[in-house]
Amino acid sequence: MTQESLTEKLATHLMRPVDEATRQRARLHLLDWLGCVAGARQSEVAQLAIRRRMESDAIGIATWLGNVLEMDDIHRTSILHPGPVIWPSVLDHRGSLSDILDCAVRGYEATIAVGSTFDAFHYSHYHNTATAGFFGSTAAHWEYSEAGTPEEGDGEAKLVSAFGLAGSVSGGLWQMRNEPGNTKQWHIVHAVNTALNASCFARDGIVGPRFILEGPQGLYAATCDNPKPMTFPDQWRIHEVSFKPWGACRHAHPAIDAALELKARLGALEGDILVETYDDATTFCDRPEPQTVIDAKFSIQHAVAIVASQGVPQLADFEPEAIARLADARRLVTVSAAPDITNRYPQHYGARVTCGGETVELVDTLGDPERPVSKERVIEKVRALVAWGGLPDKDADRAVDLVLNGEEAGAINVMLSEWLS
Fold it and tell me: N or C: which end of the chain has fewer CB within 10 A?
């Protein structure tokens, strides 16, 4: 009997039907992504995308914008952001919004299933959202029947070929974190577009490698020291995905949460502040002197300085004026990695903040499954993002109604076109 590859097992795993509770969860993630797009509509990246003659391609522009503000959803243990890759991959599907939500659930599942197998070596060099996103976007681009099976008789084998084609060119190097630019957005665009091509060619009969992950010259051999086993749980993994309340790198969120709680206890954070967190948080976000907006979003020192100076972080607090204003406050914040917090990561994103002789330690971060945000909190976030993007309140009402109550995917695309024209 021929050995079954990991992508064949994954394809079979994706074929089961999506339940209504999971579909409703997907609606919240779609709304969250739309808020992120709306909030970034006046960004430099948006203007560049429009100038590339994409005026009539709202989904194409939105693909560039979903993670610009660093408020996109995140899966902890795979250390990646599924939403920005998955939603642009499904919104041009035929069918009802429920059909699109089902494809998105499968896209989230594939992204997380593959991303959860990558080890620390992979993450130290590769942007997991990009690498795993090729597989997730491929699954999301695929069209399934009501029973979950692909429309064509040999569709499952063709989906495996699509995984092989997309996976053969997947990746995304972290060098972008050492230099200014828009490479992180390019990773998303590249994954979405390449997965679409892989899906189209596979449907036409082009064959990709079945063992693209675990083969002797496959993705694991090239990019991992010790890949983890792929698992196939009964519950759809979109339920494990976290919502981000603050406009900063997720690695900065534990320190923000702990600082907010300590400030509430003390009434003020005055004097030196010590932040202890996990190794990856210091690797990505130990930036005492941010120079740009993206630097500030990846600076624990800046995030905690915001809390100390004024409280709950707002998007404006990461802009150039705030970067200059908070320079003295940042100098009072010291960041270090703590072995006990690192040992709990990535199952738990935690931090310990000490000031004035008092300490607050949080094991989990707001928005994670252990500390979930409510539907009302997600809606509140979307309203704030729509306003930040320069749109009227009625556009937030419209997005909430179309996504949470509607069944017309086309109406969402029309709304995107109006936002991004």
Answer: N
Distance CA 421, CA 415 (A): 10
Q: Where do the structural domains in the chain lie, given as residue ranges?
A: 6-245+373-420, 250-362
Name 198's Cβ contacts closer than 8 Å, sequence gap at least 6: 134, 138, 162, 163, 165, 166, 208
Q: Which two tokens stand for residue 224?
A: 């991992």
What is the per-residue pLDDT for 1?
41
Q: Could you tell me the two tokens for 42?
A: 């006046």
Q: Which residue has the tokens 């008092």?
A: 358
User: Three-state SS for 133?
Assistant: helix
250-362 — its CATH code? 3.30.1330.120
Query: What are the start-end ranges of the E strands in 192-323?
Result: 273-277
CA dihedral over 260, 266, 270, 271, signed as positive or negative: negative
Q: What is the pLDDT at residue 152?
A: 52
Q: Which stretch of DSSP H or E encloses residue 23? A: helix 20-39
| Structure confidence by residue, pLDDT tens digits, 202-217 | 999 999 999 999 999 9
Give this prediction's pTM: 0.95
Distance CA 400, CA 393 (A): 11
Phi, psi for residue 303 in degrees, rounded to 5: -60, -45
Is-contact 72 250, C-beta < 8 A?
no
Residue 309 burial (CB count, 10 A): 15
Nearest to 325 by CA among 334, 316, 312: 316
For 252-263, give the DSSP string: GHHHHHHHHHHH
Cα distance between residue 333 and residue 354, in whole Å = 10
The full DSSP string for 29-85 is: HHHHHHHHHHHTTTSHHHHHHIIIIITT-HHHHHHHHTTTTS---BBTTTTB--HHH
Q: What is the mean pLDDT of each run of 10 residues along the chain (421 residues)?
A: 89 96 98 98 86 78 95 97 98 89 98 98 97 98 69 80 98 92 95 97 96 98 98 98 96 98 97 98 96 96 97 96 98 98 97 97 96 97 98 98 95 95 83
175, containing H or E segment: none
**What pLDDT, on a 0 to 100 scale, did the predictor assign at position 143?**
82
Give strand pairing partners of 360: 353
- Domain 6-245+373-420 fold is 2-methylcitrate dehydratase PrpD (1.10.4100)
